[in-house]
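Supplementary notes for students who missed Thursday's class. We covered one full example, reproduced here. Read the sequence, then the structure, then the short commentary at the end.
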Amino acid sequence: MSTVASMEHVVVWDSEAVREFEELKNVKERKSVHIAVSFLAQTTTLPMPHAKKLKDEPGLFELRPRSGKSYVRPIYRQTKGGFAILAVSIKPDKADFPKALENARARFAHHDD
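Structure (token representation):
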């Protein structure tokens, strides 16, 4: 598990989400995710186009690095102390998004606080 803290909130990465993110080799996209996560740590909610509630997925949101111009989509939830990154979609064609969403659903309850 990896943690990003700010004066406001803590962003915790699920250990499997870290492994998924480590598969991303594009340096520009990796940097854009780190920047988006640090913005998330500074607020209670990020508005569109920086984040979006996932339709028909209670409590799940997608982080949209570079105002949605990045193809990488970390999927997260709010917790009592901040946020938890549950899964990451890293394929440019988003072919892995359904699997990332499935993983996020499965990991959701592990990050209640």
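Commentary. The chain has one domain: 2-108. The longest strand covers residues 82-89. If anything here is unclear, bring it to office hours.
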